Amino acid sequence: MTVQQALAPRQPDAKLGTIIKLAVMAVGGQGGGVLTNWIEAVARAQGYACQATSVAGVAQRTGATIYYIEMAPMGARAPVFSLAPAAGDVDILIAAEMMEAGRAIMRGFVTPDRTTLIASTHRALAVSEKMAPGDGIASSEEVRAAAELAADRLVLFDMDDMAAANGSVISSSLFGALAGSGALPFPRAAFEDAIRASGKGVEASLRAFGAAYERAQNGVAEPAGAGEKPSGAVTNTPRGPQRLLEKWEALASRARALPGPVQEMALHGLRKVVGFQDVDYGAEYMDRLEDIAALDDAAQGHELSLEAAKYIANAMAYDDVIRVADLKTRAARFARIRAEMDAGDRPVALTEFMHPRAEEIAGLLPAGIGARIETSPKWMARLDRWFNRGRRVRTHRPGSFLMLYVLGGLRGYRRRTLHHRHEQAHLDLWLAAVRQAVARDYALGVELLRCRRLIKGYSDTHARGLSKFDRVMQGAEMLRGREDAAQWVARLREAALQDEKGEALEGALQTVRSFV
Question: What is the full DSSP assignment across 304-330?
Answer without folding.
Answer: HHHHHHHHHHHHHS---HHHHHHHHT-
